[in-house]
Amino acid sequence: MKNYALYTIAIAVVMLVSGFVYYFAAPLNWGAAETILNIHLWLGVLFVFYLLYTLPKHIKTSKLRANSSNFIKLSYFMLALLIVLFVSGLAHFIPYLSYFFKPIYYRFETYDFISNIHLIIAVFFTLLFVLHLSFKHKDNR
């Protein structure tokens, strides 16, 4: 699983940076923000498929090594946050994808709420993810 860790970190960093750049750049320059949004959205879709492939293997091997029930609780909490992050990201992706078929639009308040939930969960998940990786790195020494 060590090979997957570097890919996961790299993709997560690009996702986080592109998300923040989009969040702060969209009001300033929509043309540049649209490019970043496309990168973020499509990388998010690829990241979900990547996690669907790697996460079950990771959970299976981690259960064998986990000794603490607190560690397991934290892991399931991170999984729950990841699911909320995925669902809020999907809620962002649906209107984008619908442009190719029959456009679906959200009211501004709804879109703003989804954006804020996605941003807050992403920041919180990233902090826990870094903590999780630091525990893994500490265990592998």
Shape: elongated
Q: Can you count the beta strands?
A: 0
Compute the average pLDDT. 79
Please provide the ordered H/E string of secondary-structure elements.
HHHH
Content-based structural category: mainly alpha
- Stretches with pLDDT under 50, minimum 5 residues: none
Short note summarizing the structure:
By secondary structure, this protein is mainly alpha-helical.
Helices and strands in order:
Elements lengths: L1 H24 L4 H36 L3 H30 L9 H33 L1
Description:
Helices cover about 85% and strands about 0% of the residues. With about 140 residues, the chain is an all-alpha fold. Helix 1 (about 1-25) runs antiparallel to helix 2 (about 30-65), helix 1 (about 1-25) runs antiparallel to helix 4 and helix 3 packs antiparallel against helix 4. It is elongated and about 50 Å long. The chain starts with a helix and ends with a helix.
Keywords, separated by commas or semicolons:
mainly alpha; 141 residues; 4 helices; 87% helix
